[in-house]
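Researcher: Going back to the complex we discussed earlier. I've cleaned up the inputs and rechecked each line, so this should be the final set. Can you rerun the prediction on the complete assembly and write out the structure?
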Amino acid sequence: VNTPQPATEPAASAIRTVAVIGLGLLGGSLAKCVHNRTETPGVRVIGWARRSETRQFAIENDIVDAVSDDVIEACELADLAVIATPVDRIADYAIQIAAACPGILITDVGSTKLRIVEAVNQTPAAQRFVAAHPIAGSEKTGIEHAFGELFCDKPIVITPSGNEQPGAIAAVEQFWKSTGGRTMHLTPRQHDDLLAITSHAPHLISSLVARQVPAEAIGMVGTGWLDTTRIAAGDEALWTAIVSENRTAILAALTAAQKDLTHLIHIVQDSDDESLAEFLRTARLIRQRASNG
Amino acid sequence: VNTPQPATEPAASAIRTVAVIGLGLLGGSLAKCVHNRTETPGVRVIGWARRSETRQFAIENDIVDAVSDDVIEACELADLAVIATPVDRIADYAIQIAAACPGILITDVGSTKLRIVEAVNQTPAAQRFVAAHPIAGSEKTGIEHAFGELFCDKPIVITPSGNEQPGAIAAVEQFWKSTGGRTMHLTPRQHDDLLAITSHAPHLISSLVARQVPAEAIGMVGTGWLDTTRIAAGDEALWTAIVSENRTAILAALTAAQKDLTHLIHIVQDSDDESLAEFLRTARLIRQRASNG
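Model: Rerun complete. Updated structure for the full complex:
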């Protein structure tokens, strides 16, 4: 007799084991999300971290099913590797993992995309690498701040290279959707140009604002300053690497900001209250649209 | 018989009725704080607001004991008037209230101090005006966002003019302490110079960061950008008035920021990662000290 067949399962259901390479805030949060969620019971999470303390923390806090101190060993049984290291090491790991693990799919969480995709494109890894950037994070770093809901309702940008094998993008995209995020597609260059404006240059400018405060005024800052400079508490090594990977677009964004600052200084100097109100109103409308969006 | 006398009451205990002039976020929060707190039962709060809807909201939500549509009438029975209007109207109200209400003490919440104190100093009001700035606020405006704990643990800067009558500063300072804030003293000029750096210029730069985002990228902003630009949602009329009152110090702060931005652009252009890490580290250390302070 013909028994009813289940509808074709989406490709991501083939992902039974996920290797998370790098267990910082993002990798730790992703591991927690996948390991603990109820919608995908039975998906195993293997974590790799450089430091033994981090691996131990991941096991003791039930963030992963298992750990390894070797990237390739962590990936050996995995259907998908998610690379969550600093951006300047992502391409190398993707290439190594693809070479050692036949059939594995690979994605990442890096906040820059163009140089990573270009480097992977030079190798056969390009067929199985689907570059991604979940726009989620915190000024806090480290697995001890990981939380499984970090990706909920966050934009997750997929930046296809055009060299992916059939089905790879769909499978990885469905994996990312399962974290609760909202996926969207951009080219790597579009991504990097926009992120320079929405994230990388704002990070540097937030640091710049923090730097202006002399020691005697630190006790006098208000909640406005604390909000504006929150990301300035971030890790400088991570951000130095991001600037290095997206230097051209960041320079363009900083130069645009410099031009607008010169415009602002002229407005203030000239007591041109109408232009100042317009300057502030433009900003308010964009900020309000972003909150509501 | 001799009954035991209570210890001498501090001067502020003589404040039985407070007039709050302007019922926006700050005035409304102050009214709520004084009217509802249990430590000072029996202190009456009279509110003045330009708009009848605001006065009605204040009564219906039990934020004040009574309202008036006339500033002088609101102050007639008060021991203390707190002026919580936009900064460009504070000096005029202080002078009018002092002229009409003998014996009343006057303070304010303005985020600029020098021009207000200088204007009041031209008049007899100087004897009874104790300028203050509670460093508390929000990007939200209006009495509907008022909350009585707004001042808890916030710095409240008192900027004496030197012309106050004996006891006036102590009485007003104790009133401010009773809101839960931490008072400190600065000269009006010190205050304005520091606030330009910690609040006024950061506000403008936060708006500048918000302005850089093109429409198509609004859906892609992350929590970092949302934090950095939170205050850019503030009311442009209030901030245009603040810039007008503290123009020179704000220009100096913006010019210092411009110089640091040029430095940053050179660092990024030259791929000088060591200087970039140092730039970010300086910022992080100041930001971390501010959080812990």
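Model: Worth noting: Residues 1-10 of chain B have pLDDT under 50 and may be disordered.
Researcher: Good, that matches what I expected from the previous run.
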